[in-house]
Amino acid sequence: MSQKSDILLLGATGFTGRLITRYLPPIPNAHPSPSHSLVQELNLNQSIILVDVDVTNPEQVERAVKSTKVVINTVGPYWRWGTPVVKACTESGVHYVDLTGETVWIKKLILEYDYFASKTGAVIVPSCGFDSVPADISAYLGNKTLKAHDPSLNPASSVTAYNIKGGISGGTLSTAIMMLSGEVPREKAKEQIIEYSLSPVIGVKPPKPQFVYTLPIPGARPLIGGFFFMQPVNKHLVQRTWGLLELEAKNKSLTNSSSKSSSQLPRYGPEFCYDEFVVLPSRLIAILMRVFLMIRWVVSRLMPQSGEGPQMSKGDPGYLLTAIMVSESALALALDGTDKLTEFARRGGVLTPVTAFGDRLVERLGKTGRFEFASSVVGEKDKDL
C-alpha cells in the first residue's frame, strides 16, 4: 500500500464495525479490515483495499497505521487492545477516533500520549460514538446559544436527558464485564469515581446521582427519568472539554492575548457542571432502574459474545447513529483537514469530540439527515407556560 488511504477501519467484522463499513463505502480510499467475505457480504466497492491486522502484533499495527491518514478503531475492550493502536498513531502523526467508554483507559492515553501527540500533530479523539458525542455537543451548543444571547453569561449547569430504545452489543457488555472483573488494577479503576480525572482543571463539585430526575420543559410536561448507566463516562468526557477550554482561556489571559478566531471555542465558565439521565415512564420505574443497576452481578447474565449485538431488523438508533457519529468524526479529519477544525485540532493531542471538531461535527451530522440540532434561550416568562 504505497498510497495512503483516507481511513483505516479496525474491527470491520464486529457488530458496530459492520455498520460503519456500510456507511463508509461511498467515501474514496476507505480501508475496512480484514476479509474478502466481508466485501461480498456487504456488497462493498471492489476498489476497497483489505488488510489483516492483529492488534496484538505491534509490527502489524504500525505498518497498517502508517498506510492511512485516519484510524477508526472499534476493537475493544480498549484497555486490553487499544493502547498499541494509539501508540502507533501518535508516533506516526496519524489521526485516531474510537468508540471507547472506558474512562480509565482515556486517562492512560492522556498521561502517556497527549504531549507526544501534540508534537507529532496526531489528533487522538476517544469516545466518538453514542458515548459521548451527544453529551459533549449538548453542553457545547447550550453554552454557545447562551453566549450568542449575552456574551457575559456562563452556564451554571448542563443537564442532558436521553430518550432511547435499543439493545446492547456483545462488545459493550464485554467492556462492562472487564471493568468489573479486576483486569484493570484497582488503583486505576478508582479514577472512574474521581471527579475531573480527565480534566486539566478542577471544577465545582457536581450533584450526586439521584434516584429520580426531573427536567422542566417550557410548554410541555417535565421529563422524568432515572440514573443513566453511561452518565459517569459522559460526565468525565464533558469535564475534559470544559477543562481544556478553561485552561486555554487562562493561558490566553496570562499572556494578555486577546486574539480570537472562528476556530476558537467559547469557554463554559468556572461554575459549569454537567449531569444527565435517561427518560423513563414514571418515578417508580426510575427508582427500580436505580436499584437494578446497583446489582452488578446481573450484567453477566444473558451476555452476548463480543461481535454480536441487538437484532438490527428491529432497528437500533443508538448503534446506527454511533456508526454515523464516529464515521463523520473520521471524515472531518480525513477530508476536511485540521485547518478547517479547531485550534486544538491544529495542535494535536488527546482531545474530545467538541474540542477537536467543534461546529464542523455539528454541521456534518446535520447534513446526514439523521440528526437535528436546535437550541434557544428560555426566559422567566417561558418557564411559566
Strand arrangement across the biggest beta sheet:
2-1-3-4-5-10
How much helical structure, as a percent, in the residues?
Answer: 40-55%
Beta-strand percent range? 5-15%
Number of strands: 10
Q: How far apart are the first and last residues' alpha carbons, in Å?
A: 62 Å
The chain-level mean pLDDT equals 84
Outline the biggest β-sheet. 6 strands, parallel
Describe the model.
The protein is an alpha/beta fold and 385 residues long. The protein contains 16 helices and ten strands. The protein has a six-stranded parallel sheet, sandwiched between helices. Helix 1 (15-23) links the parallel strand 1 and strand 2 (30-32). Helix 1 crosses helix 12 and helix 5 (83-92) packs parallel to helix 6. The longest helix is centred in the middle third of the chain and has 24 residues, at 231-254. The N and C termini lie far apart (62 Å). The relative contact order is 0.15.
What characteristics describe this protein?
single chain, 385 residues, alpha/beta, six-stranded parallel beta sheet, four-stranded mixed beta sheet, 16 helices, 12% strand, globular
Outline of the structure:
This protein is an alpha/beta fold.
Topology, please?
Blueprint: E1 5-10, H1 15-23, E2 30-32, H2 36-41, H3 58-65, E3 68-73, H4 78-81, H5 83-92, E4 95-98, H6 103-120, E5 123-125, H7 133-149, E6 158-162, H8 170-181, H9 186-189, E7 213-217, E8 220-226, H10 231-254, E9 274-279, H11 283-293, H12 317-336, H13 343-347, E10 349-350, H14 353-357, H15 359-367, H16 380-383
Parallel strand pairs: 1-2, 1-3, 3-4, 4-5, 5-10, 6-9
Antiparallel strand pairs: 7-8, 8-9
Helix pairs in contact: 1-12, 3-5, 5-6, 7-10, 12-15
